[in-house]
What does this fold into?
Amino acid sequence: MRKIFYFLILISIASLSACKKNKPLDNGDDDTSGPSSTGTALDRIRDSVFLYPQETYLWYNQLPTYKNFQPRNYVSTDTITGLSSEVDHLSQYAINPASSQPYEYYDNTGTAKYSFIDDGSVSNELSGNGGDFGFSVFYPTRSDLRIKYVYPGSPADKVGIKRGYQITKINGRTDLAYDDGGSTTQFVIQAYAYSKTISMTLAKPDNTTVDVTLNTANYTINPVITYKTLDVGSGKKAGYMVFNSFTDLANAKPKILEALNSFTGISELIIDLRYNGGGSVETAEYFDNLLVPSAKNGSKMYTAYFNDKLTSDNYTLLKNLYDIPKGFFSVSNQTVNFQKQGSLNLSRIFFIVGSGTASASELTINNLIPELEVQLIGATTYGKPVGFYGIDINKYQLYMPMFSTRNSANNGDYYTGMTPGKDPYKGIGATDDLTKDFGDPTEGLLAQALSYITTGKYKTGSVTTQSLATSSKNVLSADQKRTMEQRFSRSKVKGLMLKTPSVFKKKK
It folds into this structure.
């Protein structure tokens, strides 16, 4: 199941096979060698994957012509692999002038940072339906593979797996050392992210071991992994919650309220988003409305900016399927204001972040930065200030960026991520501590927040984590950890989803 960082507006667009009279789609440029009216159903799916972005992609004007791209050449024995290769290749044309690299540069493999195509698994998970093992992993060092989180009620949770447990064997293999994206990395990713069954040997903090075998299963995702009130001394209390996924509001709202309503008498709030890859825009907006000061009610939260084709109502493919109100994509119609919810009224919030913090998480943070004091603790975030519609093409769903966002101070464009302690972001860079469970006051990142709350200063020196070896060859640099985290997160995280606007009327 492919799970990726994204901003996502879920909108049903009919499959290409449903086009009237089976006519080829026109890509709208001067290239007369467009799609042929002949070809297989899969050929036309490949054409569609190329043609929709010509109209909707945020950087459509940097895409190649049909003749130069030849979408029907992306053939594979595995259909989704071929289509994914097409999407990845298409994503690398638009260049960000600030970096002279593609906006969607991910690594030197040519894989897209944002765009992807899947079989509908992502939209299912964002509805709160888990269908996996319910855990994810991380390497503090090359030889030390750890459980980084477990969803409550998941198969992993039911057999007692906890954050911080060390994985010493997977499916009979004990050589699990991280190899910078090589065969071992791919083995681990395949085992925990794509397989139906996994067997592991786990070492607990008390030095005992346990063997477990898990099967994927459906479960309801609880996006709030844990929450608690911490006594920070001098009569002060701090609320702490791990919010791990922006699932649909219907699923997330009661879990968020349960956590926040338990924080009675708090003077500080710590929101842990270190592994939250995003999800529903509607949920992000609701979360911001709970966190924003009351005085900001009615003020601007953010604006979404689409390409000039969409803002000028020049979208033939969408018009063939929907009666969309004129001007729907204009700036005036894509500005969201705060609507204060709840009684929480703090002047400062701490966000714990990391390279797995993306999309809706970054939007939530960016929206609040102009409105109150925001402190970031951890590592540089993923960097995804863009979003898109999910386009149904046959049985697949295509996701390629369609809009960018800016907060009330007109700040956005954090393509390289948000770095704690580096202007314009307050806070401190610190290392994730997988030897401690969430909510442990001695856990490295939470300890930094508690230090600032009690002393007005962050701790100096780096936070260390348990390692099986001290050799320099075993140590991963900050950049290597970020790359590694993104490799693993890319198969497990979500993005930012907006529901289909009720004003969209599908044509019969």
